[in-house]
């Protein structure tokens, strides 16, 4: 059984990106620039944004955080996005989700210039991904592909069961892994809350991508020997420790791991790969804009 | 066993569309207008285009066919598309595929205004479909949904196996039927040329959508009792009859039908539903443009 070490893999990719950024800047161009929009003061969102900021710094990507109070109107955010779209010194735009209830998230996402949409959430980028055309792929599925690639895991003709159909993980993952490509060319089954026989389907899987957000959902008796298990779940479970919580995945790791050929831990598996995928997309956007 | 009669169902929907168009025109608006671009003189393409033309006429939608010789350049087609995009008297634009080899089909498709893209092939519409947002859904998947709806076939929690991953049938079908909607909320498995155990997977299916384009691929020993079988395949097989060919589906109908709860015939199943879906989309486009 091999642990898919997202932390080390992401670190190696980060070093590659840092080198590329350095070369890029050495040609006289400005460094890639990422702008993040954050509304309100949600604790988790603050953490994510500060991670993204420090990740950028580590590889030489510059970044700005634009903060709005919880009371901001949708039009104020839209006006800001139009301004950033037009700013030739900004390559990538992300909007930290979730937004407050009075903001239409989809309207915000669709206002972003698709060529700066480094989260890959704009319908044009979703369509391009589904059609196998160049564009921005959302960070989590892209990070998972990178991890599969890094460990040379065979995917062609394998049966991949994706648990969850979210727009940011399950659905893109299913579309990508069923394409004639590497990683890909899998037979893909998408399971979700209405699937009555998830256990039986998981037992058929060569590869399981667990992205339901249900802590410890995948048990050992749902996994066949030799399977590859990728755990996307990351739920904060309260503890009496100083942080007040620990991160728990969708997979009952201790019980499942012995049966696997490859498995990701939580934390340290998909999470760091997701973070690095955003950097890759931002560099890609810079190359697209400044060629 | 019930035959899913696409011909009769399509006829009923056509009558509804004709009524709607009549009402629409009675408010003083011009009828919906579809423009088709046809390059060269391929026999099958000529047939499809003339069907589309006569379908339009039957429901009161006006149409134009713009013909180019095989030698046309890509830029000449693009210029025409830009002209049609800007023409407020045209609601829907379709480009009859395949195009000659020297034309980049994707560039042509992406030049079409997404709001006039009644084939639903533009990446924006593909993305919107995948995200469950309003837009144009390609005709064949939309026609299949309509047929399922018309016969009140239960889909929630059912296992649907889609054979084929084409951009125009298999992939959109898989994305639509896995969404939380009716028809939909299925567990969906996508099989294709790299799937080693199609037979076993089909035997698990409550619903099979056969869209491989391989005549008589699906045999009776691949289908469980009570399954719903939708046959998208339509291959011209040479015969000594006056037409010179007969249309053969992907399903070995005579052997498979007795095991099914519902099955589509070929011809007269999915085909007419596909044709009617284009009319629906054109009417929808007209309403979008002239509201």
How would you explain this protein's 3D organization?
- The structure is a homodimer of 291-residue chains.
- By secondary structure, chain A is an alpha/beta fold.
- Chain A has two domains: 28-116, 3-Layer(aba) Sandwich (Rossmann fold), CATH 3.40.50.10860; 139-271, NAD(P)-binding Rossmann-like Domain (Rossmann fold), CATH 3.40.50.720.
- In chain A, 41% of the residues lie in helices and 18% in strands.
- In chain A, helix 1 packs parallel to helix 10 and helix 6 (139-150) crosses helix 10.
- The radius of gyration of chain A is 19 Å and the shape is globular.
- In chain A, 49% of the residues are buried.
- Chains A and B meet through helix 5, helix 7 and strand 6 of A and helix 5, helix 7 and strand 6 of B.
Largest sheet data of chain A: 6 strands, parallel
Mean pLDDT of chain A: 97
Distance between the termini of chain A: 44 Å
The helix/strand class of chain A is alpha/beta
Keywords for this entry:
three-stranded parallel sheet, alpha/beta, six-stranded parallel sheet, Rossmann fold, globular, 291 residues, homodimer, 2 domains
């Amino acid at each position: 059984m091999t642990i898919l070490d997202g932390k080390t893999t992401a670190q190696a990719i980060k070093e590659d990106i840092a080198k590329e950024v350095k070369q890029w800047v050495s040609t006289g161009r400005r460094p890639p620039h990422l702008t993040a929009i954050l509304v309100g003061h949600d604790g988790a969102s603050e953490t994510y944004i500060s991670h993204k900021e420090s990740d950028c710094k580590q590889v030489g990507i510059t970044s700005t955080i634009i903060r709005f109070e919880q009371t901001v109107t949708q039009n104020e955010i839209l006006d800001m996005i139009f301004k950033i779209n037009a700013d030739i010194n900004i390559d990538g735009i992300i909007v930290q989700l979730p937004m407050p209830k009075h903001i239409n998230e989809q309207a915000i996402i669709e206002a972003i210039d698709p060529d700066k949409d480094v989260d890959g959430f704009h319908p044009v980028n979703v369509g391009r991904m589904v059609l196998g055309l160049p564009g921005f792929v959302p960070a989590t599925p892209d990070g998972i592909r990178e991890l599969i690639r890094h460990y040379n895991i065979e995917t062609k003709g394998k049966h991949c069961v994706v648990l969850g159909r979210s727009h940011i993980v399950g659905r893109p993952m299913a579309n990508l892994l069923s394409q004639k490509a590497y990683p890909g060319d899998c037979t893909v089954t998408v399971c979700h809350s209405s699937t009555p026989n998830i256990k039986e389907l998981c037992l058929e899987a060569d590869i399981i991508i667990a992205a339901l957000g249900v802590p410890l959902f995948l048990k050992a008796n749902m996994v066949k020997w030799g399977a590859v298990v990728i755990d996307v779940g990351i739920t904060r479970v309260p503890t009496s420790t100083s942080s007040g919580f620990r991160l728990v995945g969708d997979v009952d790791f201790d019980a499942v791991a012995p049966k696997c050929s490859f498995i990701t831990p939580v934390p340290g598996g998909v999470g760091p790969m997701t973070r690095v995928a955003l950097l890759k997309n931002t560099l890609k956007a810079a190359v697209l804009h400044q060629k």
